[in-house]
Amino acid sequence: MFTHSAIAGLNTLEMLVYNFVIKNRDKVMYMTIRELADAAGVSTTTVLRFCRKLNCEGYSEFRVRFKLYLEQNEPPQANFGASEVISFFKSVNNDEFDKLLDNTVDIILSSERIIFVGAGTSGALAKYGARFFSNIGKFSNHIDDPYFPVTNDMAKNALAIVLSVSGETEEILRFASQFSLHHCKVLSITSHEHSRLAKLADFNISWHVPQMRISGGYDITTQIPVIYILESLGRKLAKKIA
Questions:
Q1: Start and end of every HTH rpiR-type domain (predicted)?
Q2: Which residue among 58, 72, 122, 207 is the one 20 to 30 A from 217 at the CA level?
Q3: Computed from CA positions of residues 227, 233, 238, 241, in that sequence, does the dihedral angle turn out positive or negative?
């Protein structure tokens, strides 16, 4: 039901509905369209568009299909936070997403050097990605300082893989723009393709997991999808290099 292509077609407001549905699975099937719209902070029209993009004619059909989806696919019990991760893996378990990864590997192979970029938690994953790819045989660097100078030499024939949960961090956007200005290809890995980073990049892989912040604004969104994408790309790359 929640395939990668279906979720990728949702706009920003429709993603609010999706995020609420994923986090409140047990409640949604008993809510009216007005109750869901109010809870997600959108209009009933947005909820209807959301339903239609999931190939449901209306909200009533969505509730029926969603109930069947839960009965057929969901485990009886899940640990806290597992529902978002389970939904991610189900959305990418298809030939379409596999083809997206294959195309990305071809881009990686055609690039002389790989530069992983990220800040904060994404910076730690950029370091992990660079090491993982280097272990495979594709020497890579990582940059976790968004003010690191970008030069023509480092950008020539390179691919910058930019990691960002929101895709809206100003420092990362500015850094990605510098790579583009130096004619360096940019691949973004973000939580959604409607972010500014995804639109700025030449290529994008999105993972559609709701962002989670705690008091103080600190991001504690799961990074399991990012690790899965990086390792999947790496393993596909290893097969082609071998």
A1: 1-73
A2: 207
A3: negative
For 119-151, write each residue's pLDDT tens digit. Answer: 989 999 999 999 999 999 998 999 998 888 888
Cα 236–Cα 168–Cα 209 angle in degrees, nearest 5: 55
Q: How many CB atoms lie within 10 A of CB 99?
A: 10
Burial class (CB in 10 A: 0-12, 13-18, 19+), 60: exposed
* Interatomic CA distance for residues 12 and 18, integer angstroms: 10
Contacts of 195 (CB under 8 A, 6+ apart): 164, 166, 167, 168, 188
Q: Give me the amino acid identity at 121.
A: T
Query: Is 0.85 topped by the overall pTM?
Result: no
Distance, CA of 195 to CA of 164 (rounded, Å): 10
Tokens 């997403």 label which residue?
97
